[in-house]
Amino acid sequence: MKIGIIGAGQIGSALIRLYRKAGHSVKMTNASKVEKLEALESETGAKAVPLNEVVKDVDVLVISVPLIEIPKLAKSLGESISLDTIIIDTTNYYPIRDGRIEEIENGMLESIFVSNQLSRPVIKVYNSILAGSLCQAGLPNGTNSRIALPISGDDKQAKQVVATLLSDSGFDAFDIGNLSDSWRQQPGSPVYCTDLNLSQLRRNIQKAQKEFLPERRELALQFILKQNPALWLEWWRDCVTNNRIVYETDLND
Ligand SMILES: NC(=O)c1ccc[n+]([C@@H]2O[C@H](COP(=O)([O-])OP(=O)(O)OC[C@H]3O[C@@H](n4cnc5c(N)ncnc54)[C@H](OP(=O)(O)O)[C@@H]3O)[C@@H](O)[C@H]2O)c1
């Protein structure tokens, strides 16, 4: 597949490596100068390009930037994304980083906010896995203990394409429904960054409680705030453990 990736941070760079390893053709861009991506370019063979180039002639466009960047990004992109391109949204809302976004505070789902800003349908996926798990916990297709991730969106065909890509990157897919159901995979849910296999994911997606999401998100965040951000590859497993406790994840198979 031909893939464009906007944002080459923790999640974006992990996806760039995984997609290249699976043999996909990847273009990438960031907020600052593309020269910052030279090392990743020579390591992976993904091509660093400006924003207007990253959306050209791609089957899938992954948007992996802080949520607060989305309105600005949408303005820069205008109508440049082809209607045939599937858009993956990996974003999450964290007021401590993104500031207060009134629409979301008033109940709009995070990926509906993104979709509205872009004026395009999006598929929500990869928002509910820590970058550490994405880098280090993927497994080949067919492995029993493989981590499964929720996918939501309104276009069934697009979700099938995304499920294939997800499997190529080392993870099972579980379609949880339309974008209006995507609150079930937002921060605060028992499936959020808790590294579940398919049967655990199936059960826990039903246990998500919308009214508890923001409160539990803030509670789980307290663990992250105590860690050294530069050492994230050392503490992500403890973060998963903490999330499972705070989000009351049921670990029975
Ligand atoms: N980290 C995780 O474990 C995790 C897990 C699941 C979901 N997420 C979500 O995924 C998204 C990305 O997270 P992350 O941790 O990868 O973030 P990050 O490490 O801070 O990286 C953000 C990337 O986005 C780029 N960027 C920012 N604004 C941009 C713009 N206007 N146009 C183009 N590129 C832009 C940055 O470019 P520069 O490098 O040039 O600044 C950087 O490459 C967030 O919404 C986050 O909540 C994160």
Walk me through this protein's architecture:
The chain has one domain: NAD(P)-binding Rossmann-like Domain (Rossmann fold, 3-Layer(aba) Sandwich). The mean pLDDT is 97. The two termini are 34 Å apart. The protein is globular, with a radius of gyration of 17 Å. The chain has helices at 10-21, 38-44, 51-54, 70-77, 95-98, 102-105, 110-118, 131-136, 156-168, 198-207, 213-225, 232-246, and strands spanning 2-6, 25-29, 47-48, 60-63, 86-89, 123-124, 148-152, 172-177. It is built from twelve helices and eight strands. α11 (213-225) packs antiparallel against α12. The protein is an alpha/beta fold and 253 residues long. The protein has a six-stranded parallel sheet. The chain has a two-stranded parallel ribbon with strand order 7-8. The site of NADP nicotinamide-adenine-dinucleotide phosphate has 26 residues, from α1 and α4.
